Amino acid sequence: EEAIEYLKLYLKKAKEVGDKHGEGNAYGNLGNAYQSLGDLKKAIEYHNLHLKIAKEVGDKHGEGGAYGNLGNAYQSLGDLKKAIEYHNLNLKIVKEVGDKHWEGNAYGNLGNAYQSLGDFKKAIEYHNLHLKIAKDIGDKHGEGGAYGNLGNAYISLGDFKKAIEYHNLHLKIAKEVGDKHGEGNAYGSLGNAYHRLGDFKKAIEYHNLHLKIAKEVGDKHGEGGAYGNLGNAYLRLGDFKKAIEYYNLNLKIAKEVGDKHGEGNAYGNLGNAYLRLGDFKKAIEYYNLNLKIAKEVGDKHGEGAPYGNLGNAYLCVGDFKKAIEYHNLALKIAKEVGNKYLEATAYSSLGCVFELQGGLPKAVEHYQASINLFDSLRLLLKSKDEWKVNFRNQHQMAYTGLWRVLVEQGNVDEALFVAEKGRAQALTDLMESKDEDFTVLKKKTFHQTLSFRQWKKLTSIFGLFPKENKFASLRLIADCPDDYHKSSGALLVGDPWVSEVTNSEGKKVLEQLEYAEKEVEMIGKILNITPITGRQATKREVLKRLSSVSLVHFAAHGCPETGEIALTPDLDRISTVPTEKEDYILTIRDVLNVQLRAKLVVLSCCHSGRGEIKAEGVVGIARAFMGAGARSVVVSLWAIDDEATL
């Protein structure tokens, strides 16, 4: 507020002496000041005055800057269409005047706008353009900012590993150039990434580092944000008292600095905490305060969240009518601002209400609408397979809700198709995109193996056969000599000795799988084959036998991200800390180096329920076995615990 007073004095002087450039700059700075306070209507008013003067005096730099600031203001308001329009006008002008620095910033702003829209592919494209320019002109601050934005985009996609990688690059640059503000933001972003990963203790560690720096440099906005993030982490840990304590600190700072957006968010977070505590009355009270502020500042986008939260709160008290009313308001806002992501979430929430109310046909309708929208967002990711899988894994509620309702309706077959559809989509996307050299097959090649009814069901439900040229692997099988694959022999690997495997801190990371050993023993009895288990199941022994058998069956730990298999380490090196991965992990490279003759490979790998199995990893290891010569590979696309595999 003090800064605003000085800027108004400067504006007055500029007007008195007829300094149009100074007057325009004052308007622009006042717009930025009001935007930082959350008064977006006033910010837009001042940025428009800046734009008007810049056009009058032919100040192209000023005109471009005003467009960029208007874009940021409209983005904060949730009017993303208008934000993109202004950012493109900014980009056009900075290109005309040859200002590479501001061109990079324009790309970054466009990336942020598309991220808010849910178009993560486009967001990443623009952030990469920003990064390239920043590197070209030696703009280290811009480079760091681009890394940070890329990290945020990958968080939205659920690719937390990549997000952490980019946020660490941002942190490294911020430290190099002495940018304490950027360093603090990088810590905060790393905290958010670990939060989404479910590592709340690590999230708290990073948010505390952000808080420390924000206090050191007097960044009140950053301090408030850090308190809010700490509250979120403690909320997820179930420490509601501590969460509320931090949310109140966030609220206090937001009020002190006049940050209306921050104040509204703090109210929303307090509502979430009281909802978890079961104090629904207080939760509704805070959600209404959040909504009131969003309306006051004209933040249409910000209205959507409290409407959705109010819908959830009224659902908790059993007021289905009000729950539906508020979720419909959230849906209306999402449609108005063009946010497909929020629209899909609103449909999913409505599906949940109708399901609990007993309105099963309406529940199916809304869950299906949600799935259609999430699938349309997924398609925007195009050939980026791992993005699609991560995105799908994050938004399972609509799929699980739909198959649950279908089961309740007695449509068990359809429910099964829905439950598997997401996995099938991920699998076919991944398989197709990695087959760069397609072979067009005659229709009879694959029609011969399926009855018409089976083929039609696969086509309509799973979409597995939209193109005849998806089956490059069929040509490989057809071209194999009849006697290529082994007709006898089996390699059965169960429960390798992994309990001594250690990480860099010397901690044991894997447990024995009691039922995996029983699994291969049962198969061994059927086939009259002795399985290799425990200490015998070394990587060396497995690689030695792989190429000489017709059947390969693994019942062992599998890596959720890569699909690679944990075997018994080299017994001579088992005491090494940490255990070297090449000693016990059967990697994709290892498999590809073996000339397989197996007709069937079964990967019955347990993930102990400790995390989501990633389809791109499963497909990677499955394709490795096929690429090495296996005729067929059977693999699960979901996490299985030890006993379930038996």
From TrEMBL:
Question: Signal peptide: which range, if any?
Answer: none
Every CHAT domain range: 473-645
Which UniProt keywords are present, listed alphabetically? TPR repeat
Q: Which InterPro entries match?
A: CHAT_dom, TPR-like_helical_dom_sf, TPR_rpt
Biological source species? Pocillopora meandrina
Put simply, this protein is called CHAT domain-containing protein
- Pfam families in UniProt: CHAT, TPR_12
TPR repeats by residue range: 24-57, 104-137, 144-177, 184-217, 224-257, 264-297, 304-337
